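dumping this here before i forget
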Amino acid sequence: MAVTKTEPINGSTNKPSSSTVLLKSDLMSTLSLKSLKLKTKQQELLIRVSILCLVYVLAFITRLFSVLRYESMIHEFDPYFNYRTTLFLTEKGFYEFWNWFDSESWYPLGRIIGGTLYPGLMVTAAIMYWGLRFLRFAVHIREVCVLTAPFFASNTTLVAYFFGKEIWDTGAGLVAAVLIAICPGYISRSVAGSYDNEGVAIFALLLTFYLFVKAVNTGSLAWGLASAFGYFYMVSAWGGYVFIINLIPLYVLVLLITGRYSMRLYVAYNSMYVLGMLLAMQIRFVGFQHVQSGEHMAAMGVFFLMQGFYFLGWVKHLLGDKKKFEALLRIIVTCAVGVGAIALGVGTASGYISPWTGRFYSLLDPTYAKDHIPIIASVSEHQPTAWSSFMFDFHILLFLFPAGLYFCFKRLSDATIFIVMYGLTSMYFAGVMVRLILVATPAVCLISAIAVSATIKNLTTLLRTKSKVSQTGSTKGTSGGKGSSKSLPDQSQPFQRNGAIALLFGAFYLLSRYAIHCTWVTSEAYSSPSIVLAARGAHGNRVIFDDYREAYYWLRQNTPSDAKVMSWWDYGYQITAMGNRTVIVDNNTWNNTHIATVGRAMSSYEDEAYEIMRSLDVNYVLVVFGGVTGYSSDDINKFLWMVRIGGGVFPVIKEPDYLVNGEYRVDKGAAPKMLNCLMYKLSYYRFGELVTEYGKPPGYDRARGVEIGNKDIKLEHLEEAFTTSNWIVRIYKINPLRSSTRDVSSHPTQPPSHSNTCFQHRKLKLDHIQQSCNNSTSTTEGAFCIMISKHVFDYFPVGISSSLSSIFLKVVLYLSVEGHWTWRRREEGSLLKMGNKYYGECHEKSIHCLKPANKEASLERETDNERWAPPPQTWDLTSSAWAGLYFRSLLMGSDSICLTLQLGNRGMGPLSSLLKWNEVDLPSREEKLRNDSRQLLSAQ
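structure:
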């Protein structure tokens, strides 16, 4: 059957039938809000909830570029430590997590994990993981860690909405939620895979501020207590809580000065501070800092000031006489200021109140870190912020921010005063330190949202008003000539209306450009994991450099499980987490001396560096090199910071020795010490044979754009073990000691001869040593002195130029000569000053500092000190010689020992021998020591 096609007659088009029109009208009426028969407020609520849901989803999916482009992986450096600890928590549980001593980091010191981190991020991810597993979702903990930051970024949009609504109106809250959802300043630390503390901390920070402002506006005790719990979560998640505990007291102080004191403020601050402080003290890493740290004293001072205000108000009401009250006020204020100043001075002088930290000083004085603590200034995110970074992260918000401040000052209230102070202080800190742009982003978004909301509201109000006026005028004009002449519309009305429409279109255009910019920045700048590098090839195709994971996989598969890897501290977390190998230093940077030792090794000649590495039991050295690929964040570009940090502890390292006329160079004009230091040789070994770019000579460094100065590099004590496919990571193995060098494990009967004048002290006779030892305070100490001194020069130990060695030797010495194998608390202070931060906490908190020596001893028979103290050593010849050398330096003065002895000329480094815990119980050790002492005394 043929189907005929209807053609239009005389060129006319077919009109839709009446049934089609009715169908479309019924469909539109069905989809309209009117069909739901909702009231106006209900319709507004529905639209508001719909917008928030869309923004919530937008905030999550816009952070998934890295997962879609690469794979589900952890980014950066610190997140790998967070992932490793979270994995440990989910597998071992809370008890093992709090008592975890990590021997794979900071060798040979180790690290107490449970007491040296902010656990909020790990606990949050673990709870989500356990919850999903309880609901029978088959997820891996890595997937939870990867998506934690996007999830909390979505939650932050909801908090931003309620915060904006609280300080201004609903429109400002909606705009704030949209702005913060895609703002690059926040996205930089909340993309998928950015498993760092800031991922949950910004949510906690904004939540704390919102709850506190809500408490101030309402005077409700419940909101005040809720803000305390928000503060507790912030303290558990990030060290940036110091910003909260200083901004809120500053805000309260401003309200007191401006005469805005009220009972609402009194209830809000007191409830937040008291409960928040008590909760924060439950975090082991924070402890009693709220009452002992100078960074927290402002909050305590404002707390007492609030009590004074309340007391004075009560006294004023009780007296009723203004003159008497003013006289009493002067007396009370004078006494209070005097007592406070005396208490603060005594507390600071006695050491009860600790001074501000280096990072805190750096915020007030940007040059402080570079001059006094170079390790802080060496971190790129601690550098001052360039103006281009503000434009890159804020875009048009940088111009809306001043407009929002104007509207806030125009309508001052307790809430707007808070957001103004938050915005101004955070923007100042963001200018000092680029990392703190993250803290300023919520304030910038909220204040900009106020500007957008107020502007759009004023423009739409103007349009509605003009529309009503014109409609009224036209109606009266048609009723008669008289009415028409009296109600002629203003001639400027069309221009105002057109101007308002133009401004609205301009505002929407700028906001659309903001959305485009945010999407581009998120995709291109902030969604590339640093562990996997990407670049554009000659034909525009994307090239992936996966050298980091390639190197860590090689370490895990091809090195002994107990191998120690030395690298700059930037890569410590990744080596431990992905390579599963012990590192000398990592990103925790708690011991500046240990990091300086690594910096000294990297900046020394190979012979000197070899001795340092042997003393630290280093087996492999890892360096990052970008000369082939043009990767600029390599160790050569970081090298001057190694020199500065090393020179801060070891004056023998001087930065001018590596510069030429104040210029840092790696070509033929470089300084001789630069061309021959360990870092240069490890980075450019065999590089002089390589042609990296067409038309360039061999050995052309693409990262620095020069031809290297030393192409004929020979290694004496190291050998190349592995270089990744793109030469980004290079690993070298430490060669074993040569046969000409004695190994302490062989225990020769006759000491070898040494030509160095440092060994002239071997001629000292034993009776002279014994005479010095007779001055000891106890028989055991004197016998021990003789025993260890006998082996000092028979088995040549290393020197004590390293303060790290001094720490360990002093620990071993006092564990031995104090008589009862217990940890003496009087030594804690000196050890803390020497850099070992955690030994003092071991005794105080009864936690595992080191591996317990006596595993089978019953808890009833051992005392707490015996059970938890660092276990003593079996005094073999090596450890005896070590402790003897240090002990003799204490007895006879530094002149009796050469302080420049070579480090680590033994088959096993001395620090390693000190860490070989024996399994003999305590009484057997004491008996062994007494027997050895008797044998030595009888032999004389």
